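$ fold --in a.seq
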Amino acid sequence: MKTIALDVGEKTIGLAVSDALGWTAQGLTTLRWTEGEYEDAFKQLEPYMKEHEVSKLVIGLPKNMNGTIGPRGEASQVFAEKSEAYFNVPSVLWDERLTTMAAERVLIDADVSRSKRKKVIDKMAAVMILQSYLDANSN
């Protein structure tokens, strides 16, 4: 069973999946959605959940730098609640502070053009969220 990580934004959701042993994260795709239209998002996510036999969701929790939860964090909490109910799998909210900036830095260092970075940044952030989670929870 694998774990999928989601970097949930207002317009996009970056996806990454673990290997079967839970050691490495690999980027999958970026889904487009309209915030609040959960059913649509879950229908797009469903094929990935089935294909990878997902047993857990890790959802990025954007905290403020002082550790408090703002509106984006609250939106991630709602997404986690609704996704647990829809997919009947547990979810974990994982601190994602600075993951998008780190993903951007990796892509810039790899000399990826601005237009291409925009297309993959959310997927890359999901990879960083998942890898951080896997590293922290490895046996």
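$ fold --in b.seq
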Amino acid sequence: MTDEPTAQTTGLSPATTAVTAGRPEHRPDAPLNTPITMASTYVAGGDLEYGRYANPTWTAFEDALGALEGGRCLAFSSGLAAVSTVLDLVGQGAKVVAPHHAYHGSIAQLADLESRGRLSALLVDTSDTDAVVAACDDAALVWIESPTNPALELADIAAITEAAHDAGAYVVVDNTFATPLLQRPLDLGVDVVVHSATKFLAGHSDAVLGAIVTRDDQLHDVLKQRRDMVGAIPGTLEAWLALRGLRTLHLRVERAQANAQALVERLRGHRQVQEVRYPGFGAVVSVVVDGADRADLLTRTTSTWVHATSLGGVESTFERRRRWRTEAATIPEGLVRMSVGIEDVDDLWADLEQALDKLP
């Protein structure tokens, strides 16, 4: 029946949208949650046709994230699959401007494409707006992270977007760290938003998923065609888990951000911490201690904090980023990226403090 009421998202707050978007229609005996549809093949004659083209479970997640970001969403098998799909649209030999500090997977893809002559990559300090604006000349694409990973630098998204558009370039923002609750790049004129939904959106360290959101219908259709052709589609269970996680995004972000802000103040007062990097919002904090050995020791002497490379889950995780050879050489050897979870903040601090106190 087409006249049954459905969950409305227009004009609702982000918190309400996170709970209500992507639900089945409100009718007697309808499930509150979109079921997991395990199907590779559909009966012909409808809109789905084949499992590589669409799935009702993906669609529910896409509807919800699209409503939060203010655009149309496409889900992908991973954040890197989403990144790769966007970069695949860059013309042969065209110029891409990107942060010199960013998710190493994105930078690695740019380096690989450049080594094969597919494009030209210019890495810049995106916190230097004048430098980014100057770099936009002749660019086909400007890639922004704000905050950057793991340096946590901020970019003037609106100013850079205006300059990029004046130069004829598209603008992409990786919004993984901020989430649509803290920043909506499409409202600032950006063309495409990319997410590693594995992180804060899914939020429970149990699903690998990516997403792209845009308001440009033509661009959406081109990106979907690329997903269909390449087959970078999400798993049905992963999409369902991510949607379930999205329902509590506002609660998790609120708690994790409050924890992060409290920890920042305490970390700044500890004798072993040389520098604290925090953009003022979100749940990711980077601290610098004296050297790689101390940073490694810090990550090995906690019980509540977990030494792990991913982030954005309900649990607090951290790692020394330069343990990865692909990390930018301009990141200090002693930098530890911390993803603050939703545990009790006093427990988190007690665990950190005892570990910091043990450093030589």
